[in-house]
């Protein structure tokens, strides 16, 4: 069995992958995550997931490397990681009462053979109508500045939602485990 590398510095992805009870090491990829002109959210996350895996392959030439990326899309607008409170407030106010689609790109690269599997996992979230006080309390409690769309589904973010729709709730946190288990199986790794 080839050793597994998670090409990510995300504590959320590390925690999710840990649920599969497999040994792995994390390695932070260094790539430019800027969207290309006219690139759709789906194209962006698939490209970035693949590039993240490829970015660490030189350091891990006989490994299975997992790359993942996520964007939140409100209509045609991509909601990035807010970075600070003002942007998080603006994002959550824009999402109030609306449906946001999260696209999570997943890639599994066998650096020994060069074979790379990829997929995009969508997940839709309908937000409750959020007043300013609710948004401010949520941001103060969670400080979701490193999360696409300004919320943490695994925490209080769940209280912001009216409805969830998708095949794998883990994709909403950033790593679609159902698809990943299938990909690992094609590489000879059975879980459990």
Automatic annotation (TrEMBL):
<dbReference type="GO" id="GO:0009117">
    <property type="term" value="P:nucleotide metabolic process"/>
</dbReference>
<protein>
    <recommendedName>
        <fullName>7-methyl-GTP pyrophosphatase</fullName>
        <ecNumber>3.6.1.-</ecNumber>
    </recommendedName>
</protein>
<dbReference type="GO" id="GO:0005737">
    <property type="term" value="C:cytoplasm"/>
</dbReference>
<feature type="site" description="Important for substrate specificity">
    <location>
        <position position="154"/>
    </location>
</feature>
<keyword id="KW-0546">Nucleotide metabolism</keyword>
<feature type="site" description="Important for substrate specificity">
    <location>
        <position position="70"/>
    </location>
</feature>
<dbReference type="Pfam" id="PF02545">
    <property type="entry name" value="Maf"/>
</dbReference>
<comment type="function">
    <text>Nucleoside triphosphate pyrophosphatase that hydrolyzes 7-methyl-GTP (m(7)GTP). May have a dual role in cell division arrest and in preventing the incorporation of modified nucleotides into cellular nucleic acids.</text>
</comment>
<dbReference type="GO" id="GO:0047429">
    <property type="term" value="F:nucleoside triphosphate diphosphatase activity"/>
</dbReference>
<feature type="active site" description="Proton acceptor">
    <location>
        <position position="69"/>
    </location>
</feature>
<keyword id="KW-0963">Cytoplasm</keyword>
<comment type="similarity">
    <text>Belongs to the Maf family. YceF subfamily.</text>
</comment>
<dbReference type="InterPro" id="IPR029001">
    <property type="entry name" value="ITPase-like_fam"/>
</dbReference>
<dbReference type="InterPro" id="IPR003697">
    <property type="entry name" value="Maf-like"/>
</dbReference>
<keyword id="KW-0378">Hydrolase</keyword>
<feature type="site" description="Important for substrate specificity">
    <location>
        <position position="12"/>
    </location>
</feature>
């Amino acid at each position: 069995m080839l050793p597994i590398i998670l090409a990510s510095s995300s504590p959320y992805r590390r925690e999710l992958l840990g649920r599969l009870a497999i040994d792995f090491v994390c390695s932070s990829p260094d790539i430019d995550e800027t969207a290309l002109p006219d690139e759709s959210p789906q194209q962006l996350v698939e490209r970035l997931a693949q590039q993240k895996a490829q970015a660490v392959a030189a350091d891990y030439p006989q490994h299975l490397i997992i790359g993942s990326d996520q964007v939140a899309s409100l209509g045609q607008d991509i909601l990035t990681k807010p970075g600070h409170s003002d942007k998080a407030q603006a994002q959550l106010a824009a999402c109030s009462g609306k449906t946001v689609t999260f696209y999570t790109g997943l890639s599994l690269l066998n650096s020994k053979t060069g074979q790379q599997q990829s997929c995009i996992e969508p997940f839709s979230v309908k937000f409750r109508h959020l007043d300013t006080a609710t948004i401010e309390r949520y941001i103060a409690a969670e400080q979701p500045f490193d999360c696409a769309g300004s919320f943490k589904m695994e925490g209080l973010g769940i209280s912001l939602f009216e409805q969830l729709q998708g095949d794998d709730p883990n994709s909403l946190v950033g790593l679609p485990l159902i698809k990943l288990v299938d990909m690992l199986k094609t590489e000879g790794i059975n879980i459990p």
